[in-house]
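Two records follow; treat each independently.
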Amino acid sequence: MKKVAVTLVAITFLCGCSFVPNVKGQPIALAVEAITNADFTMGDVKPASSETVETGKVVRQWPWPIIPVARGSIVTIYVSNGPPVVVPNVVGKTREYAFSAILTAGLTISTITEQNSTTVQAGKIISQNPSAGTKIRKGNSIALVISKG
């Protein structure tokens, strides 16, 4: 292990590289401060679902803190927006029920398409996308197809 550490130090010295600070588990503000104070450029802050990292804290970053990179490199962090949400099953339900179930789950409705159907009663949901049981990020949207009868 000592030889690996010496080799990494030599590589970082020769290329003018440095290690990105490990900001996993930190709140956004502290992560951004640590990254910029270490002479790196703050890149995107992207949402990520996590069942283990508290909402608003860094789940992961790129580049990883174990990779030597040139100073000034862009660092992207992924911040927890909480655990994934399970898409509710609204197929065969009324429009009102579907809207309520989707919004209660922390999701939104992206599109509503009406379609003729001989098998599904008017006003009820024919299909949904993504399908019931799918795990998605809170705030994502669901597309619905509603029967015109």
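The next record belongs to a different protein.
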Amino acid sequence: MRKILRIILITIGSLLVLMILLPLVLKGRIEEKIKTRINHEIRAVVEDGLNFVINPYDEYAVEEALRLREAKGGTVRAVSLGGEAAIPVLRKCLAMGADEAVLIKDDAGETYDSLRTARIIAKAVELKLQGADLLLFGKQAVGSDNSQVPAMVAEFLQVNPITQDGAQRVRSAAPAFDVAIDRATGRIVLVWEQLSQGGLIPLRIVLSESVDGGATWSDAIHVDQTPSNSELILEQAFVPSVEVSDDGTIGITYYNFQNDVAGDSRADTDHWFIHCHPELADCLERESWVDPVRLTGESFDMLTAIPANRGLFVGDYTGLASSGSDFFSVFAVTRPGDKQNTLFVSIDGR
């Protein structure tokens, strides 16, 4: 028997946030070849007479929602935040095959910074769109290019990793991040948890770097080496740490559920180390992060961790350091009779 999903697709644009019941989140953009005018007093585009079309990344999210519906059944609802200009984008989603469209009207005008947009979406999900199994967001808006709203919505909704057995939430690092600096070159490396392909699960570990002191940043890339799995829950990765060794090698650690087995009333969890050297490979390509090292000698059962605010909690003692070319990882696991057992593992950099 197929599980029936309710999907919400949310578009996020200068006027637009769109949700689907496999929830999907979308954003609008100004139609190409349209001459724009600027209101210099408020530093914003004059919207009178402009036509808005669907943001391309949100269009990808619509297509993914429709594929999920075809595979698993359910309903796809497109939701947009904005004024009347958002209606053509919603109509486009319906034409593509969405089952329903909802406009969250707001007459406040163009005041949709990322934080305000995320608050409105999260509140709409809580009050009007309960019961959705999945929220899909476009990766980013082509106008602002900030890719901030999905993670903010997840934080407001307290979205955390979820165990396969027991469906228990795990207290993770979101929305925190970890940062490391190559002392020789000044390269800054940032890692954090990010929602995968716009959805609320699974979580991924992503990386961005700056080589000009933080003035500009690379596009975020998915770096954890968690294998693909038909059970999306087993693709989650969470709580990243990053460090740069003296020879420039970038190391990252994280937890995942890749060795978990359904139906055994456990949530087998492991801690992993991956690395990349910028002089030997392009570290902005996922394929360059090689040789995952399992730091846990055996999987531990996350279901035995301490229940805490926002989910099961193994402790705050997680981090990565280096000396010379070697790395040193500190992380927490559970053991029989010990719900918070902190381990120290060295990784030979030679």
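Discussion point: Residues 12-32 have pLDDT under 50 and may be disordered. How would you locate this feature using only the token line?
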